[in-house]
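Before any further analysis, backbone shapes were mapped to integers, which produced the following:

***
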Amino acid sequence: MRTEATQRVELVFSLFDTNGNGVIDSDDFDLMTGRVLEAAAASDDGAKEAVRAAFRRYWTTLATELDADGDGVITADEFRPFVLDPARFGPTVAEFARALSTLGDPDGDGLVERPLFVALMTAIGFEDANVHALFDAFGRDAQDRITVAAWAAGIKDYYAPDKAGIPGDRLVAAPAV
């Protein structure tokens, strides 16, 4: 696994541990889902339900695939070696990528405006400066928008163990001063 992927894994674990108790459990996903849905007030019910289902599937996949001792929580040691395994998580990540990027496009024009992108990404827990750097890396247009497709592809790339130099690496980089 590339160094960049290892850094992404560590960040994802810390974000998924939404309540900060040192492990990931279903309550963490409920908290994160609530935050994301609150940030997406303008999105339609179908998009909200899709993201709710994607978060549920994500937790179910983690619990099924990684909870080695069956205690209902995922430790960092259980999480690290397996979460970037495309065979185990590819379909779950693809569903999540579709749902989240679509949630960012409430008017259905295929474009995500910066304010909503920032609101959704900070609701997940990413640092504001890094979120802006990521948005810019996706190739914003003159109206300060990115495509839904670019964001969805970027999410999938983020979970790829062999990728480096991708836009998502800006989420783990120290913000520019």
Summary: Helices lie at 3-16, 26-39, 45-66, 76-79, 86-103, 114-124, 128-137, 148-158. The first strand starts at residue 111 and ends at 113. The longest helix spans residues 45-66. The mean pLDDT is 91.
